[in-house]
Amino acid sequence: MEDAGFILGSYFLTFATVALYAWRAVRSGRKVSQQVPDDEKYWL
Amino acid sequence: MTTIEPAKAEHDTARQSALPSQRSTATRGTRIIGIVAVVALGWLVAFGLGFSPADRDQDESVRILYVHVPTIWLAYLAFVVTAVSSAMYLFSKKKSLGWDRAAGASAEIGVTFVAVTLAVGAMWGRLTWGVFWQWDARLTTTALLFVTYIGYLAVRRLGGSHEQRAKRSAVLGMIAVVEIPLVHFSVKMWRSLHQEATVANLDGDTKMDGLMLFSLFVGVIAFTLLYVWLMLHRTRSMAMEDLLEERGLDEALAVRRAEAAETATAATSAPPTATMKTGSDS
């Protein structure tokens, strides 16, 4: 039972950390994207 | 101030007309990579927690391996990308800031993955060794790697121009990567509690069950896709942040120049009343 807690906890911790970082990356991109015209976005 | 306001209004109007229609860093490509990464992560959970067998020695706790090992491998990859991008910035003739932003974005992602590796490794250590942390060679060198790249990110935030930031962080990015072989071979160089490499060993003998190896492979693919997706988003964000910083500086300089020109014009066109008064007094 203790094993299950640590195993599930390790998966939860991994996905939660990565999801939090990904959410911050997307949010900061949206924030700055509103202030930059499309012709200055090299990826479009 | 009155002469500056029409210029500012004209600038604002020009900016309004150029309002972006694309309000994110996403493209069709990133959406596809993102969806495939999420599917691969789902497969990782299915194989890591379900389909793969328990280990003869470590029993069920071996399941932590499928997130612990891919995250540190991706951190290694991220830091190597940082070093290569840094070298490209320093030694290329063009000195493109795109290389610097790629180095910074990759280091950020690498630091996130090392943090996950350390935290998950502590949980695995608690199950196999009975303690969360030991000042063991592998654990200590990994912690040192983490702290070094935190320092790298701090150096990137120091003041100065983008070129100054790129130059100093590129030097650090190329030095810091030397720690990776130190971390990886620490288990061979010193007596370590941490197990030696099961897959990425020099003798090429992989001591793993087929389904276990496949689960690990799914983890590596899932985190690699995630890394690519994050890199695309972060480098695009950083490019726009740099652009806005430059624009802010240009605007501030334009306002100061206009103020200086206004002051100079006022000074030359004003009648020299004070001098005349002084002259009559004397």
Give a description of the structure.
The complex is a heterodimer of chains A (44) and B (282). Chain A has 44 residues and is mainly alpha-helical. Helices cover 73% and strands 0% of the residues of chain A. Chain A has 1 helix and no strands. Chain A has one helix at residues 2-33. Chain A is rod-shaped. Chain A starts with a helix and ends in an 11-residue tail after the last helix. Chain B is built from 10 helices and no strands. Chain B is elongated and about 95 Å long. The relative contact order of chain B is 0.14. The A-B interface holds A 2-4, 6-11, 13-15, 17-18, 21-22, 25-26, 28-30, 32-44 and B 15, 18-27, 41, 45, 48-49, 59-61, 63-64, 67-68, 71, 109, 112, 115-116, 119-120, 123-124, 126-127, 226, 229-230, 232-234, 236-237, 239-241, 243-244.
Proportion of residues in extended strands of chain A: under 5%
Strand count, sense and barrel status of the largest sheet of chain B are: none
Oligomer: heterodimer
**Stretches of chain A where pLDDT falls below 50 for ≥5 residues?**
none
- C-alpha Rg of chain A (nearest Å): 18 Å
Based on the structure given, which CATH architecture of chain B is correct?
Up-down Bundle
Structural class of chain B: mainly alpha
User: SSE string of chain A, helix = H, strand = E?
Assistant: H
Described by strand count, sense and barrel closure, the largest sheet of chain A is: none
Q: How many helix segments of chain A?
A: 1
